[in-house]
TrEMBL record:
GO molecular function: FMN binding; NAD(P)H dehydrogenase (quinone) activity
Name of the protein in question: NAD(P)H--quinone oxidoreductase WrbA
GO CC, one annotated term: membrane
Pfam families linked: FMN_red
Ranges where the Flavodoxin-like domain occurs: 5-155
Source species: Streptomyces lydicamycinicus
InterPro entries from the UniProt entry: Flavodoxin/NO_synth (IPR008254), Flavoprotein-like_sf (IPR029039), FMN_Rdtase-like_dom (IPR005025)
Length: 203
């Protein structure tokens, strides 16, 4: 069974875009998975079509002023049309990721923004299933999930470094792990619904 995954993100300066590409690369590692990487900077017909036909939607935003970016919020508000049209995204698999300048930086709030948005649409949220890293005396920033996040994937980029050098390799591996898990879960969900005879998910 084929599934489609869309990685839909906003990025002001390229850091979240780099994380988004890693999420997409992780999803692509799952056989029979078609992955589309789409920017939320322009809300055009092609974007809405890609999102509608996908089985899983993975959303990314930079953390700006302790939450999701204004561009991301504009997208979220525009999806009220989808919600109002018989909750057309209900039962899609969903997940999220964010990048910010500080190690903490209130990134959790941006992930909560995304998770609540997914819940309002009746989507099925999938988090990151990896132990936290960099939390023992022998730990290192090279550890997977070094920022210790489970609601979604976090990454950090120093404010004086461009997307050519950051986020670091461990944050990109963490992003890949999220993409892979969500694609696997989308396969299980689609096959499971078919096996028990439920209606196909809305894609
Ligand atoms: C308007 C604005 C607000 C920001 N707010 C935060 C913040 O609340 N926490 C934080 O750690 N970094 C904050 N930053 C830093 C960005 O999160 C950081 O530069 C990030 O890498 C930007 O991602 P992008 O290149 O995908 O836009 C802010 C940056 C901008 C431009």
């Amino acid at each position: 069974m084929q599934i489609k995954v869309a990685v839909a993100y906003h990025s002001g300066y390229g850091h979240t875009a780099k994380q988004a590409a890693a999420v997409a690369a992780g999803a692509e590692k799952v056989p029979d998975t078609q992955v589309r990487l789409v920017s939320l900077a322009e809300l055009n017909d092609e974007l809405w079509e890609v999102l509608q036909e996908s089985d899983a939607l993975i959303f990314g935003t930079p953390t700006y002023m302790g939450g999701s970016s204004a561009v991301f919020r504009a997208f979220v508000e525009a999806t009220s049309q989808v919600w109002g049209d018989n909750m057309r995204w209900k039962n899609k698999i969903a997940g999220g990721f964010t990048n910010s300048g500080n190690m903490a930086g209130d990134k959790l709030n941006a992930l909560i923004d995304i998770a609540l948005f997914a819940a309002q649409h009746g989507m099925v949220w999938v988090g990151l299933a990896e132990y936290g890293g960099w939390n023992t005396s022998s730990g290192s920033p090279e550890d997977l999930n070094r920022l210790g996040s489970w609601l979604g994937a976090m990454s950090q980029s120093n404010n004086d470094e461009g997307a050519d050098v950051t986020p670091c390799a461990s944050d990109l591996r963490t992003a890949e792990a999220l993409g892979r898990r969500i694609a696997e879960t989308a396969h299980i969900h689609k096959a499971g619904r078919a096996a028990v005879g439920f209606d196909e998910v809305s894609a």
